[in-house]
């Protein structure tokens, strides 16, 4: 296996490719999130008039998707490679295709398709139009033009690309089971697979997510995070119309926290159908308040 | 005459929107042209994933000159009026106006305005940007740097280029000079994204469509569909297989490719253990591929047809292999669902349905199933079904909603339940009913024929109708979110096509009592729902007077309050308390104020009218029958309408109708004049002593009315019509020989009463006044 086709090689190639397009290459956000979109480099930076280009890997946690390491395609923890370009350049589709070419997808041999997929995140109060990108019938990326985030119109619109790294790597490597992925491209005793790195974690976290996660603690944490978010927003609020907000990002951290705690509670099956809706609504209210605060900061474009 | 070529090239347009968008584009542009007086010879619109195109042939190069005369004020009118006239007519002074003489009103000014016809090119340049800016996409978006500004152009996906040319065939056409959203119309387009990505210079439609074809773009969606269908059939045939054709999928796939390349992939035959419908659903929904059958067989083959957008340099090997991998993964999932589902019996899934809310005000799926089961059992004898089987089928009918397979493919509901039921050894009628109780789902869908299926289908639909009627969620206008019209039509078709003689109101009453038998109280905040045996649904939040909860007798006191207090009297239960272990916490309110049976019956009558009209029955005959009281036996209504129609086709029928109408008119006028009703029985002795025609009518009426009533009582509508037809001759003779408004008031009264007796006799069959003609 060539270094380039290994899981880490794929990440390095994508980082190099998007760095060459002028993106800042960020590191993963240091909190548990359900998708790369939650990273403030996307959610918050998509708001306001200032141009922004960034790319990063984001470990994403979907507690409900855990399968104790027994399903070859489903993981409760996986990697997304996220690109955000604001405003979207006119040739974003071409750039995306060039990035596939860069990681070794031969566009003369493979059938790449843009299939309608409208994206919506109820918890973030966000939606956009775009596609799922298919390679020979497999969805390998999400391509979205953000129209609204945190309840605010995006002006200008940002283009967001999300690569499902495990899927893409499985495709590039021709592997049917995610745990068989070549992680480091080394030979013999040095060879490390995805399973070597993550199989035990998948087993342990599935147990945790479905059986053990302390629900009483989590309910407390949800309420605490919600209250903290509100109090930080209040504490950082501008005293006058002409002033800026001073704590939008710490408040948003609490919103992320509440969202993840909700996902864990959901996986534990302790939230009923009707309650589910109200929890989602509560997180969305936090996201909206954080978005509003962000728009009053310098990076959010406030004067 | 010159042609217009318009192409709007964008990033990939959702397949489901393309055809409609092309038609909209054609309509909007041609309507706008016609509105401005520009007629054309022909127009055709096209769509691919990346472009909408429009060709309008035979437009004039310029519009016709317009001459308009505008009449002004009279000569010598006040200055203000003169100035207003000059301004509106666009004249500099009165010297440019003519004077005309009106014989009555004297001399007037007249402005003759002549406008040269406008250049079509200019008109197009004016109207095209407007149409593009206001295009009716189901969902549109902003993009790019321009989206920072309010009012930025919206399109379904980013619009990349516009071709707009106009001119005659023999000359180089001109570019229609306009720009929208910063994109100027021009003559350059691009070919297939991967196979011919370079720019193409186009002039007019003929060379445009050919250039695209060379650049691996088939512009016409129908041609792409043809290519796909024929290539798919050929590929299948070559391997001894048949394509399972699927128009919806074909349409969608044709909207996903500009250059269709049909390939065949295969999968492990071991997957054929999975039900064929599930294989098809997964391959269709997730992969947009077609499945194949072994030639001349109903069995699926372990192969599928995929449609690629790429003519690959390896002949499609990598593409096929990639699709096979995905199909394999999907079928592995489906097999897992199938195996997992089989491990749990359908009845063991019922507790889970108890936690799924069907409708906030109508309780959980579990509660609904209990109602349907009770109702199906009760209805069973009416439709000749075994009550125990009907109840069993109803209890299992919704269980597959919580299986993995139906969770993944909702369109397989019912069908999967049937398969799982068969595997666990249920009675064949129970298995069939699990699938068929949803039927008929539309006007052309099959009506179930197994009595058990019928009992469950009726119970399901009636519970739905009664439930939503109870909570006031009736269809309004075009809004029918719970498909209640479909449910009512389903009930109607089941009853009529199986020829059940039953009053629909009896069904409704039974369904209502099933709903009543579940009593639920509203939980407010941290209050609880109490469920007790029988009673009403009532909204409860306030106790007045307060109830001592510890001494509160749920079966007695609560029932008394619920059933005897006014419906809006509400009760608040402030403490959690377990009653017989049947307390559940929940949110939302439940109100049951009973069902307005006559309103629901009227809804059925409306649906029946629609149904009969669709079957070709005369709407006036339907109205004439429905005007009679108590028409809720659907089959009787239909038979009555049929008999009436046949009768009115005869000479006797037509003449009798005319006679009855004449009688009704006379009665209406005289009753109004006299301020009284003539509704008593006529005096037969008086009639007997009157004129011969009068006597004959009285005798005929007495006989015919009795015979007709008897025939109606034994549901012999044709017999009733025959009895009425004997009245024709006496009625005709009566109107010919007898003066109704006789000078003798007693005679006059009796003759009016005779006419009323005629009207009454015919009312046994229908209200003739509602019949046209």
TrEMBL record, chain A:
One of its GO terms (cellular component) is cytosol. It is an enzyme of class 6 (ligase). One of its GO terms (biological process) is glycyl-tRNA aminoacylation. The keyword Cell membrane does not apply. The keyword Ligase applies. It catalyses: tRNA(Gly) + glycine + ATP = glycyl-tRNA(Gly) + AMP + diphosphate. Gene3D superfamilies: Bira Bifunctional Protein, Domain 2, Class II aaRS and biotin synthetases, domain 2. One of its GO terms (molecular function) is ATP binding. Pfam families: tRNA-synt_2e. Keywords: Aminoacyl-tRNA synthetase, ATP-binding, Cytoplasm, Ligase, Nucleotide-binding, Protein biosynthesis. Its EC number is 6.1.1.14. It is found in: Cytoplasm. Tetramer of two alpha and two beta subunits. Belongs to the class-II aminoacyl-tRNA synthetase family. This is Glycine--tRNA ligase alpha subunit. It comes from Methylobacterium brachiatum. The lineage of its organism: Bacteria, Pseudomonadati, Pseudomonadota, Alphaproteobacteria, Hyphomicrobiales. The gene is glyQ.
From TrEMBL, chain B:
Pfam families: DALR_1 (PF05746), tRNA_synt_2f (PF02092). The keyword Nucleotide-binding applies. Signal peptide: none annotated. PROSITE patterns: AA_TRNA_LIGASE_II_GLYAB. Residues 659-760 form the DALR anticodon binding domain. It comes from the Bacteria. Its EC number is 6.1.1.14. GO terms for biological process: arginyl-tRNA aminoacylation; glycyl-tRNA aminoacylation. One of its GO terms (cellular component) is cytosol. InterPro entries: DALR_anticod-bd, Gly-tRNA-synth_bsu, Gly-tRNA-synth_heterodimer. It is found in: Cytoplasm. It catalyses: tRNA(Gly) + glycine + ATP = glycyl-tRNA(Gly) + AMP + diphosphate. Keywords: Aminoacyl-tRNA synthetase, ATP-binding, Cytoplasm, Ligase, Nucleotide-binding, Protein biosynthesis. GO terms for molecular function: arginine-tRNA ligase activity; ATP binding; glycine-tRNA ligase activity. PANTHER family: GLYCINE--TRNA LIGASE, CHLOROPLASTIC_MITOCHONDRIAL 2, GLYCYL-TRNA SYNTHETASE. Belongs to the class-II aminoacyl-tRNA synthetase family. Tetramer of two alpha and two beta subunits. This is Glycine--tRNA ligase beta subunit. The gene is glyS.
């Amino acid at each position: 296996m060539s270094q380039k086709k290994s899981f880490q090689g794929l990440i390095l190639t994508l980082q190099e490719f998007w760095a060459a397009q002028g993106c800042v290459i960020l590191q993963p956000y240091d909190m548990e999130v359900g998708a790369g979109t939650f990273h403030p480099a996307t959610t918050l930076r998509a708001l306001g008039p200032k141009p922004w280009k960034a790319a990063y890997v984001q470990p994403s946690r979907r507690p409900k998707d855990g399968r104790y390491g027994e399903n070859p395609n489903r993981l409760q923890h996986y990697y997304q490679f996220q690109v955000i370009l604001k405003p979207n350049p006119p040739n974003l589709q071409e750039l995306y295709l060039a990035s596939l070419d860069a990681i070794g997808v031969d566009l003369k041999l493979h059938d790449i398709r843009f299939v309608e997929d409208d994206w919506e995140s109820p918890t973030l109060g966000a939606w956009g139009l775009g596609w799922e990108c298919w390679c020979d019938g497999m969805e390998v990326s999400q391509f979205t033009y953000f129209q609204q985030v945190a309840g605010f119109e995006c002006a200008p619109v940002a283009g967001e690309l999300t690569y499902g790294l495990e899927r893409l790597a499985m495709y590039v490597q021709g592997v049917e089971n995610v745990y068989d992925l070549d992680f480091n491209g080394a030979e013999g005793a040095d060879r490390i697979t995805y399973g070597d790195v993550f199989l035990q974690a998948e087993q342990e976290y599935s147990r945790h997510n479905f059986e053990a996660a302390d629900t009483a603690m989590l309910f407390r944490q949800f309420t605490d995070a919600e209250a903290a978010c509100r109090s930080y927003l209040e504490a950082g609020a501008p005293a006058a119309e002409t002033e800026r907000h001073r704590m939008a990002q710490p408040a948003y951290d609490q919103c992320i926290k509440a969202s993840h705690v909700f996902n864990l509670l959901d996986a534990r099956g302790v939230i009923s159908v009707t309650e589910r809706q109200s929890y989602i609504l509560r997180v969305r209210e936090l996201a909206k308040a954080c978005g509003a605060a962000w728009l009053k900061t310098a990076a959010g474009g406030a004067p | 005459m010159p042609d217009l070529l318009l192409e709007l090239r964008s990033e990939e347009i959702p397949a489901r929107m393309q055809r409609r968008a092309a038609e909209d584009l054609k309509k909007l542009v041609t309507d706008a042209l016609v509105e401005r007086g520009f007629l054309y010879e022909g127009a055709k619109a096209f769509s691919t994933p990346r472009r909408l195109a429009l060709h309008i042939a035979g437009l004039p190069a310029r519009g016709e000159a317009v001459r308009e005369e505008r009449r002004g004020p009279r000569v010598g009118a006040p200055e203000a009026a003169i100035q207003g006239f000059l301004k509106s007519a666009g004249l500099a002074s009165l010297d440019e106006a003519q004077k005309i003489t009106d014989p009555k009103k004297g001399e007037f000014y007249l402005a003759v305005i002549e406008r040269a016809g406008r250049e079509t090119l200019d008109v197009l340049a004016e109207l095209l940007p407007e149409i593009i800016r206001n295009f009716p996409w189901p969902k549109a978006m902003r993009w790019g740097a321009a989206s920072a500004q309010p009012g930025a152009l919206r399109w379904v996906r980013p619009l990349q280029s516009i071709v707009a040319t106009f001119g005659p065939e023999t000359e180089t056409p001109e570019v229609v000079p306009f720009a929208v959203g910063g994109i100027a119309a021009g003559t350059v387009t691009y070919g297939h994204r991967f196979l011919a990505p370079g720019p193409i210079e186009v002039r007019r439609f003929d060379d445009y469509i050919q250039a695209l074809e060379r650049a691996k773009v088939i512009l016409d969606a129908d041609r792409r569909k043809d290519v796909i269908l024929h290539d798919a059939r050929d590929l299948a045939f070559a391997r001894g297989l048949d394509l399972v054709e699927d128009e919806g999928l074909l349409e969608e796939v044709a909207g996903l490719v500009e250059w269709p390349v049909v390939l065949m992939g295969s999968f492990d035959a071991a997957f054929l253990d999975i039900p064929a419908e599930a294989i098809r659903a997964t391959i269709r929904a997730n992969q947009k591929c077609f499945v194949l059958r072994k030639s001349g067989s109903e069995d699926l083959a372990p192969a599928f047809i995929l449609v690629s957008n790429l003519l690959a340099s390896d002949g499609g090997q990598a593409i096929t292999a990639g699709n096979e991998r995905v199909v394999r993964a999907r079928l592995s999932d489906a097999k897992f669902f199938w195996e997992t589902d089989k491990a749990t019996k359908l009845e063991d899934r019922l507790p889970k349905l108890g936690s799924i809310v069907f409708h906030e005000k109508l309780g959980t799926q579990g509660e609904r199933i209990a109602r349907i089961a009770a109702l199906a059992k009760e209805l069973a004898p009416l439709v000749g079904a075994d009550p125990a089987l009907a109840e069993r089928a109803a209890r299992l009918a919704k269980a597959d909603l919580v299986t993995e397979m139906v969770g993944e493919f909702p369109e397989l509901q019912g069908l999967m339940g049937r398969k799982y039921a068969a595997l666990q050894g249920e009675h064949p009628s129970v298995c069939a009913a699990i699938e068929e109780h949803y039927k008929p789902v539309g006007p052309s869908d099959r009506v179930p024929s197994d009595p058990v299926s019928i009992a469950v289908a009726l119970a399901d639909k009636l519970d739905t109708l009664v439930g939503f009627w109870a909570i006031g969620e009736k269809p309004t206008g075009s809004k029918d979110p719970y498909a209640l019209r479909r449910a009512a039509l389903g009930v109607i078709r089941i009853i009529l096509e199986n020829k059940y003689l039953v009053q629909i109101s009896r069904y409704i009453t039974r369904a209502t009592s099933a709903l009543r038998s579940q009593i639920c109280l509203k939980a407010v905040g941290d209050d609880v729902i109490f469920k007790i045996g029988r009673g009403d649904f009532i909204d409860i939040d306030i106790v007045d007077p307060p109830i001592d909860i510890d001494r509160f007798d749920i079966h007695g006191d609560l029932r008394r309050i619920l059933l005897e207090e006014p419906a809006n009297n509400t009760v608040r239960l402030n403490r959690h308390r377990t009653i017989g272990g049947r307390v559940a916490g929940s949110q939302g309110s439940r109100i049951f104020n009973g069902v307005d049976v006559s309103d629901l019956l009227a809804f059925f009558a409306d649906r029946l009218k629609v149904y009969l009209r669709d079957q070709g029955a005369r709407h006036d005959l339907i109205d004439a029958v429905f005007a009679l009281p108590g028409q809720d036996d659907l089959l009787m209504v239909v038979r009555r309408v049929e008999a009436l129609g046949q009768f009115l086709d005869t000479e006797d029928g037509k003449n009798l109708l005319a006679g009855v109408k004449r009688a009704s008119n006379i009665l209406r006028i005289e009753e109004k004049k006299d301020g009284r009703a003539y509704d008593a029985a006529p005096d037969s002795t008086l009639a007997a002593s009157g004129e011969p025609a009068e006597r004959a009518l009285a005798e005929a009426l007495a006989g015919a009315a009795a015979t007709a009533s008897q025939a109606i009582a034994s549901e012999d509508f044709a017999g009733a019509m025959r009895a009425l037809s004997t009245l024709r001759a006496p009625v005709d003779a009566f109107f010919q020989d007898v003066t109704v408004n006789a000078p003798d008031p007693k005679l006059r009264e009796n003759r009016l009463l005779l006419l009323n007796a005629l009207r009454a006799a015919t009312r046994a069959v229908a209200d003739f006044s509602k019949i046209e003609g």
